[in-house]
Amino acid sequence: MIKIHFTDEEKAALDYERYNHPHPFVRRKMEVVWLKSQGVPHQEICRLANLCSTTVTTYLGEYRDGGMDALKTLRFRRPTSNLDDRRATLEEHFRQHPPASAKAAMAEIERLTGLKRSPESIRQFMLRSGMKCRKVGMVPAKADLAKQDEFKKKSWNRVWKKPRQANARSSSSMQRTSC
After folding, report:
1. From CA 22, how far away is CA 31, in angstroms rounded?
2. Which of 40, 92, 124, 125 is the most buried (most CB within 10 A)?
3. How many domains does the chain contain in total?
4. How far apart are the first and last CA of the chain?
């Protein structure tokens, strides 16, 4: 059992942070320590916070050793890639010679660094580096303006000049009925 003495200022700060800190993990830690400051036994804290006793003891030990600043630090495991060490040179190379696909980038990275990665991991690396895949689009062909004008004069004039028939038969097979 960990014995900690809490001042009124520390209790007030814990009470504020357990609701107002932006990260939910830190709020949970603050809640556990706040419950301890209120004299709640460890087993009850475990039940209320829905945590195991080891986690509660770890949170209380962090507070005892480092105060509220220790509770606010988040230590998530963030694996790094070997490509991140060579990011600057690869970015420079790809800016000068953009790859056509992820497979082309994969082959180029393997040639430059000797590291073999899957196309998906190469795609993710390139996205983290600020590069993105470009979509292929159609380039319109050159238009012949004389042929376009001739088409407009011949085709469009006939359509616009035709008068609409008022009682044209409908394409439907059913006869018209009046209400």
Report:
1. 14
2. 125
3. 2
4. 90
Q: Is the pTM of this model over 0.70?
A: no
> Residue 30: which domain range?
8-72
Per-position DSSP letters for 67-128, written without gaps between them: HHHHHH---------HHHHTHHHHHHHHHHS--SSHHHHHHHHHHHH-----HHHHHHHHHH
pLDDT digits (tens, 9 = 90+) for 14-51: 999 999 999 999 999 999 999 999 999 999 999 999 99
Domain-located, residue 63:
yes
| Separation CA 54–CA 177 (nearest Å) | 83
| Residues in contact with 160: Cβ distance below 8 Å, sequence separation at least 6, in sequence order | none
How many Å apart are CA 133 and CA 31, to the nearest integer? 45
User: What does the alpha-carbon distance between residue 53 and residue 175 come to, in Å, rounded to a whole number?
Assistant: 83
Query: Residue 153 falls within a domain, yes or no?
Result: no
Question: Tokens 């028939």 identify what position?
Answer: 165
113 in a domain, yes or no? yes
